[in-house]
Amino acid sequence: MTEDGSFDYESIQDVRTICSFLDSLNQGFESGQIILSSDNETLELSPQMLLKFKISAKKKKDKSRLEMKISWKHLSKESDTANLSIGT
């Protein structure tokens, strides 16, 4: 795992490779485990419960951009098993 818990990667790729990356992310979300790795960096993520999803796009004359942001909170074992009690 990376020392500071972050992972950054940037490159130029063709559409087919980007589709492959997106397919892998999809499988990771479905299985609940996403592993990002490049060179000597590895970061494992475990998406769980409700996720916040944001997408934005911009198109200019000679350039387009699409950004997606997905985030979630880590649940502790205590919050997973917390019981609710409502009384009158």
Question: How does this model look, in words?
Answer:
The protein is of the alpha+beta class. It contains 2 helices and 4 strands. The protein has helices at residues 15-31, 77-80; strands spanning 34-38, 41-45, 52-59, 64-71. It has a two-stranded antiparallel sheet. Strands 3-4 form a two-stranded antiparallel ribbon. The model has no long low-confidence stretch (mean pLDDT 90).
Topology:
Layout: H1 15-31, E1 34-38, E2 41-45, E3 52-59, E4 64-71, H2 77-80
Antiparallel strand pairs: 1-2, 3-4
List keywords for this structure.
88 residues; alpha+beta; two-stranded antiparallel sheet
| SS-derived structural category | alpha+beta
Number of helices: 2
Strand content range: 25-35%
For the biggest sheet, the summary is: 2 strands, antiparallel
Based on DSSP secondary structure assignment, what is the total number of beta strands? 4
Shape: extended
The topology string of helices and strands comes to HEEEEH
- Model regions low in confidence, pLDDT < 50 over at least 5 residues: none
* Helical content class: 10-25%
User: How would you name the oligomeric state of the polypeptide chains in this document?
Assistant: single chain
Strand arrangement in the largest pleated sheet: 1-2
Distance between the termini: 49 Å
Short description:
The chain is built from 2 helices and 4 strands, in the order αββββα.
